[in-house]
Amino acid sequence: MSRNAPQRQRTREKDTSGRVLTIILIVMIVALIISGVVLYMMIQNKRNGGSSGGETSSAVSQTADLTGMVTPAPATPTPAPTPEPTPSPEPDQKDYTLEEAEVVWDNNLLLTYQDGHWKALNLFGGGDGEAYIEALNTLQEKVGDGVTIYSMPAPLNSQFYTPKNALEYTSDQEECFDAIAKQLDPRIKSINLVPVMRKHTEEPIYLRTDTHWSQLGTYYAVRAYAQAAGVEYPDISEYEAKVNEDFLGSMSVYCDDDRILNDPEDFPYYLPAEGYRTFYYDTNFNYSFEDDLFWDVDTDSSYLMYMGGDGYVVKIQNPKVKNGRRMILIKDSYGNSEVPWFVNSFEEVYVVDMRYLESNLVSVIRDMKITDVLFSMSAYSVVGGNSYNLMELIEQNEGETIYDAQADPNSWVNADGGDEDWDE
Fold first, then answer.
1. Are 249 and 300 in contact (CB under 8 A)?
2. Measured between alpha carbons, how far apart are the two ends of the chain, in Å?
3. Is the dihedral of CA 293, 296, 299, 301 positive or negative?
4. Global model pTM greater than 0.85
């Protein structure tokens, strides 16, 4: 046994030496692999022109960390931007069409008793708006892409206040307006006011004793237009609120019913801040005179306070507005109470009545450098006989040149101190 001990010792030494060599060989192979990976990434980074330098740098740092050479500092995360709060949508107010109410027919007019008062309803018979659609599409082709056209029909009060027990006598205006919008040139922007007005049904947005909506109602309508047009629109609080009491409108004449005659209403109106000017032209665009936007009228003619009615072409200038935008409103009488709300949103506002303008509409748009054209008239005029006037406006006196004497510094208007001595 003693002679074999040195031999076993030498065998153990050989085995130990072999293990050491194997470990050294494995470490060298691992080091070569790591070096090869690093070299390959550097070559790839050069080939890519440094476009993925951040990724290569990250890979190198991670490799170095594995070998115990470098530990990169943790990256500081970029804070996410704080999102702006989304405004809550206005809820719809009361839907009067879901409730029954007392109704009376008088001279083919439907009167209904709601919230302690009688009101006369403008019932809607429906229609396809074919002439309206043709006219707007034709105008868009003629004026081209440099002018934006908007379609904003004015709903009648029957859309919101016809009681459940009388709905069979009127048609849905929202569906009518949507059907028309689908047939308009895609460049024309359509605004359906029914959802807008539905949010304010408990406010006096329509006149109870008249055929028209109130100026409060048109505030919400024009606000929707201003949002679509991308122009500033002052809050109603920036206007001077006034009221004519004991107003009896045109419905009191049409029906001559004691229920209406004995139930007058307030006529609210709102004055823009001073600083704008209003000029009046005849229907051939001949300049006539400068006057107030709001006219003095007796109480029962209160709706005529807006520009004196429908008989003039009107131009409003506001030097405080500097956005390069000039609009023209093509309207029936429903559009009259919209006009004060445009004053602070456009440099110039032109107003023409679809029934009375004798100049060529295309020429007016071209020569007055109009940027925005708004068609806003009652649902009756959109689908009824008045709509046929629109194509006539486009075709009459085709190619004429519109001369604005008020804007010409060399005209009689601006000679010897302007038109102060003009005798209308």
1. yes
2. 145
3. negative
4. no
pLDDT in tens, 314-330: 999 999 999 999 999 99
Q: What's the confidence (pLDDT) of residue 78? A: 61
156 dihedral zone (left: phi>0; alpha: psi -120 to 50; beta): beta
What is the rounded CA–CA span in Å between residue 404 and residue 354? Answer: 20
The span from the CA of 143 to the CA of 113, in Å, is 47
Arithmetic mean of pLDDT, 224-228:
98
Are β-strands 372-376 and 326-331 bridged in parallel, bridged antiparallel, or unpaired? parallel
Q: What is the dihedral of CA 318, 213, 125, 351, to 10 degrees?
A: -20
CB 264 within 8 A of CB 246: yes
CA distance 260 to 9: 127
CB 142 within 8 A of CB 394: yes
Question: What secondary structure letter does DSSP report for 154?
Answer: B
**What are 163-188's pLDDT values in tens digits?**
999 999 999 999 999 999 999 999 99
Kindly give the pairing relationship between strand 117-121 and strand 148-151. unpaired
> Distance between CA atoms of 284 and 358, rounded to whole angstroms?
5
The contacts of residue 112 (CB under 8 Å, 6+ apart) are 101, 102, 103, 104, 118, 119, 121, 161, 162, 163, 166
Residue corresponding to tokens 């005529």: 304
Q: What is the mean pLDDT of residues 42-60?
A: 46
